[in-house]
Write a structure and sequence with these properties.
With 251 residues, this protein is an alpha/beta fold. The protein contains 9 helices and 14 strands. The chain folds into 2 domains: 163 residues, Ribonuclease Z/Hydroxyacylglutathione hydrolase-like (Metallo-beta-lactamase, Chain A); 70 residues, no CATH class. Strands 1-2-3-4-5-6 form a 6-stranded mixed β-sheet, covered by helices on one side. Helix 4 crosses helix 9 and helix 5 runs antiparallel to helix 6. The longest helix is centred in the last third of the chain and has 15 residues. The protein is globular and about 55 Å long. The chain binds zinc ion and fe (iii) ion (FE). Fe (iii) ion binds next to helix 2.
Amino acid sequence: MPLKIELVPCLTDNYAYLIEEAQTGLCAVVDPSEAEPVRRALAGRKLTYILNTHHHPDHVGGNLELKAQFGAQVVGPAMDRARIPGIDTGVDEASGWQFGPLAVQVLEIPAHTRSHIAFMMDGAVFTGDTLFAMGCGRLFEGTAQMLWQALEKLTRLPDATRIYCGHEYTLNNGRFALTLEPGNAALRARMAEVERLRTHHTPTIPSTMALEKATNPFLRPMSIELRRSLGLEHATTIEVIAETRRRKDTF
Ligand code: ZN
Ligand code: FE
């Protein structure tokens, strides 16, 4: 495995991720909400890159301080240079990105924000606030149609892909999911495990694509049980996604 990935809890429920490329020892951080926890996690190592999935303050808040301290290069969505503090390199699906010897796939997944991206490398995907464990981010700048397109794009990644998302929202997301699919055995089993983990304040991240496909209501608009719960048995996929998102907004 050429990558070592460490969770860096930030603010109240954010995760930044410190990633070290094994061959070169290069370090990058994904979505540093704040500088101090990242500095502590680095434990003397040098930070070369800062990767941002989107412009929200709880994902870029540590950019400038870490850049000033380490001379790190800031990499973010090319479409959103004006809103990414300190950005040096704008990336998109066509450009991809290179982390030392490792080719990184950039996925454009607008919905939560209009220029949100994900970084896929070495079987791990950093999804920011577009895809959460058993949930998805609010639609601040996009539509339900864009959300479904983004989520579908992510589901085309291999089932074993490990998912590293921007927040520890898993327990609440799962409780909402259970209101729509109380009969989903995979969901019930996962929730038992998530409740056990959170009792001990243990992170529920990473998830996997297989697990999300089985339990995340936003990846399951075809589920009969979910459609019945919403009263949308014959609706289109987009209508189901839109209504699921609406209900989650007020859950
Ligand atoms: Zn956000
Ligand atoms: Fe966020």
